[in-house]
Amino acid sequence: MPDIKYKYRINELMHQLSVNEYRKAIRLIPIQLGISERTFTNYRKIRQNDKRDIPHEKVDLLEKLFGLATGQLQNFTWIARPIAETNEQVKNLPRKINL
């Protein structure tokens, strides 16, 4: 069975906890996030190619709870070009589009 790629490293981080810490975390993290335990379980199951996502403020709080730097909870990287490069592309577009 192939490894399932999750969008966020929540399960990986949870499994690094001791059994007692894991049991406490399962109950305390949803309280800290202001969500239900079921919603937290759903957050843990979001796969890499799912359109579902966790709200940014919840991701930020999860990173703090796990002692991670910003952006370390996610299992993916955004590929984006700087605005300055994008502006240059826009300047080179034709002003009038013939339909």
Number of domains: 1
State the end-to-end distance.
50 Å
Helix percent reads 40-55%
Order of helices and strands: HHHHH
Residue share in β-strands: under 5%
Shape: elongated
- Give a short account of the largest sheet: none
Radius of gyration: 19 Å
Give the number of helices. Answer: 5
General description of the model:
- It contains five helices and no strands.
- The chain has one domain.
- The radius of gyration is 19 Å and the shape is elongated.
- The longest helix has 15 residues, at 19-33.
- The protein has helices at residues 10-15, 19-33, 37-44, 56-65, 83-91.
- It is mainly alpha-helical.
- The protein starts with 9 loop residues before the first helix and ends in an 8-residue tail after the last helix.
- The relative contact order is 0.16.
Short note summarizing the structure:
With 99 residues, the protein is mainly alpha-helical. It has one domain (10-91).
Distinctive features:
99 residues, elongated
Q: In terms of topology, how is this protein built?
A:
Layout: H1 10-15, H2 19-33, H3 37-44, H4 56-65, H5 83-91
